[in-house]
Automatic annotation (TrEMBL):
InterPro entries: MBL_Glyoxalase_II, Metallo-B-lactamas, RibonucZ/Hydroxyglut_hydro
Organism taxonomic ancestry: Bacteria, Candidatus Eiseniibacteriota
Annotated Metallo-beta-lactamase domain residues: 14-191
Superkingdom of origin organism: Bacteria
Gene source species: Eiseniibacteriota bacterium
Region listing for Disordered, in residue ranges: 189-214
Molecular-function annotations in GO: hydrolase activity; metal ion binding
Protein name: MBL fold metallo-hydrolase
Annotated keywords: Hydrolase, Metal-binding, Zinc
Names of required cofactors: Zn(2+)
PANTHER family given in the database record: HYDROXYACYLGLUTATHIONE HYDROLASE GLOC
Length: 214
């Protein structure tokens, strides 16, 4: 058995949300619903899924704003790294800065730890703390698949000019925590198409092997 996943491209920033499920038990996790939670809820109901975890790779508005509605609908706890707690507390201010509607954080929160494992039916997701885009950014891993939020994109990386961002921390997270996992590992980002660690190690203009080469 293995996890299966479905991607939803939602909202004005075309944010990738994910529905991850254990193929054997139909237990599911929902990642990063910033907009249009009803779209993901329809898929949950159509698949007869039981949602065990609501997961946040980080606490920026476009990944969080729909999670309160998700929680009210499915009743699962929401997980976030505590270093992004201040961003979560400022969710309304984040939205206002981009002219977006007010949003409330999920009511019930659990705090993630580096190295933690979350059960999902007969499968599991492991947690890597990968700061840089935000102080509490995390990557979730199942087998050869990573959900990286806005840490790493196909041919690019996440912004580091927002509060708490650090390009040095981001580059360190990618190079020391992700690239050693192996070139064949699939990368599912918070925006844009999927990629692999090998493709980004070889050619990413921000964090790849050629950066700084003569």
């Amino acid at each position: 058995m293995a996890v299966e996943w479905q991607r939803f491209v939602l909202g004005p920033f075309e944010t990738n949300a994910y529905l991850v499920r254990c193929a054997g038990t139909r237990e599911a996790a929902v990642l990063d619903v910033g907009f249009e939670p009803e779209v993901v809820l329809r898929a949950i109901r159509a698949g007869g899924l039981s949602v065990r975890h609501l997961l946040l790779t980080h606490a920026h508005y476009d990944h969080v704003a729909g999670m309160r509605a998700m929680q009210e609908a499915v009743g699962a706890p929401c997980w976030l790294h505590p270093d992004d707690g201040p961003l979560l507390a400022a969710l309304a201010q984040q939205g206002a800065a981009f002219g977006l509607p007010d949003a409330a954080a999920p009511e019930t929160m659990q705090w993630l730890e580096d190295g933690q494992t979350l059960s999902l039916g007969a499968e599991s997701l492991s947690v890597l703390h990968t700061p840089g885009h935000s102080p509490g950014s995390v990557t979730f891993r199942s087998g050869d698949t990573l959900w990286v939020g806005d840490l790493l994109f196909q041919g690019s990386v996440g912004r580091t000019d927002l509060p708490g961002g650090s390009f040095e921390a981001l580059a360190r997270s990618v190079r020391s925590r992700l690239f050693p996992l192996g070139d064949s590992i699939q990368v599912l980002p918070g925006h844009g198409p999927e990629t692999t660690l090998g493709a980004e190690r070889r050619s990413n203009p921000f964090v790849g092997d050629r950066v700084g080469a003569p």
